[in-house]
Specification:
Elements lengths: L5 H14 L5 H13 L3 H6 L7 H15 L4 H5 L1 E4 L2 E4 L11 H8 L6 E5 L5 H9 L4 E6 L2 H13 L6 E5 L10 E6 L14 H6 L2 H4 L7 H9 L4 E10 L5 H10 L3 E7 L5 E7 L5
Parallel strand pairs: 3-4, 3-6, 4-5, 6-7
Antiparallel strand pairs: 1-2, 7-9, 8-9
Helix pairs in contact: 1-2, 1-4, 2-4
Bound molecules: S-adenosylmethionine.
């Protein structure tokens, strides 16, 4: 029997994942192998011809089986890349998504000192903004204590304990202070759209992070109604939303007295981030 090398094990796993209908099977197999070996993508390439020990092969088979159950790679490895940093994630917290980087990019285009992150989850938005903006401080709130455990872990890994506060809070319940930048990626998927989500999302991500209710706009309505006392006069607001929601979200905040500034699109032209100001002078 021929020896199992990293390369042959990878090839077999990629075929198995592909046959199960998993997109990006080859990339997933490589990420899982790198995880098992405790290396990165570059390190893996250098070792492709090495034999795989029976113990490592058993470890690899185990994680491939998990992936076949549609468990996201990030939940298997416990890590997800966001803005070129690695964030601890798991089933109790939303996986940071690439589209959320649009919000971060727009936030960083202007100065800010105090950031409020509503529905902070892993803390990916707040912690990235603070890491990129020296001297800024902020607060992240989330209703889920399990999600906040990840935020706290990520804060420690990034050495931001002195600049980021996290609190368990039903939106503004425990928010204190005034902020010149408010960011939020609240749950926004309409309840009726949930069954159509990919199994990776539906089976493995927390429901309360995905849907706020029947219209998908419920969280924006609550945030728009309660935000004013926590804003400095010229505060900026950046809100992520679903691909067809930007105009509705903008209208909700405009009706609450905020000034629409822009709708920011992703690379496919879908408006995913709504930008507003607290007042017209800002
Ligand atoms: C779409 S996830 C965003 C997580 C993270 N900010 C990100 O961008 O990856 C929405 C977050 O809002 C939180 N959330 C839901 N309802 C909430 C509420 N009533 N008060 C505070 N946070 C809430 C969820 O627990 C979840 O972490």
């Amino acid at each position: 029997m021929s020896e199992t090398t990293l390369e042959s094990a990878l090839r077999a796993a990629a075929v198995e994942l592909q046959q199960a209908g998993i997109e990006g099977a080859e990339t997933d197999a490589r990420r899982l192998m790198a995880h098992v070996l405790g290396t990165d993508a570059a390190g893996l390439i250098l070792r492709l011809k090495e034999p795989l020990t029976p113990a490592l092969l058993a470890d690899f088979d185990k994680v491939v089986k998990e992936r076949l159950e549609r468990k996201p790679v990030s939940h298997i490895t416990g890590q997800r890349e966001f803005w070129n940093r690695s964030f601890a994630v798991g089933p109790a917290v939303l996986d940071p998504r690439p589209e959320t980087e649009i919000l971060v990019e727009k936030a960083l285009e202007q100065p800010f000192k105090r950031v409020l992150d509503l529905g902070t989850g892993s803390g990916c938005i707040l912690l990235t903004l603070l890491a990129e903006r020296e001297g800024a401080t902020g607060m992240g709130v989330d209703i889920s204590p399990e999600a906040l455990d990840y935020a706290v872990q990520n804060r420690a890994a990034m050495g931001l304990e002195k600049r980021a506060i996290f609190a368990q809070s039903d939106w503004f319940e425990r928010v204190a202070g005034q902020f010149d930048l408010v960011v939020a990626n609240p749950p926004y998927i309409p309840l009726g759209d949930m069954p159509a989500l990919a199994p990776e999302v539906l089976r493995w991500e927390p429901m309360h992070a995905l849907t706020p209710g029947p219209t998908g706009l419920e969280a924006y309505q609550i945030i728009a109604a309660g935000l004013a006392p926590f804003l400095s006069p010229s505060a900026r607001l950046l809100l992520e939303c679903g691909a067809t929601q930007a105009r509705d979200v903008s209208a909700i905040f405009a009706a609450a007295g905020f000034v629409p500034v822009a709708l920011h699109a992703d690379m496919d032209g879908r408006e995913r981030v709504v930008e507003l100001r607290n007042d017209a002078k800002g």
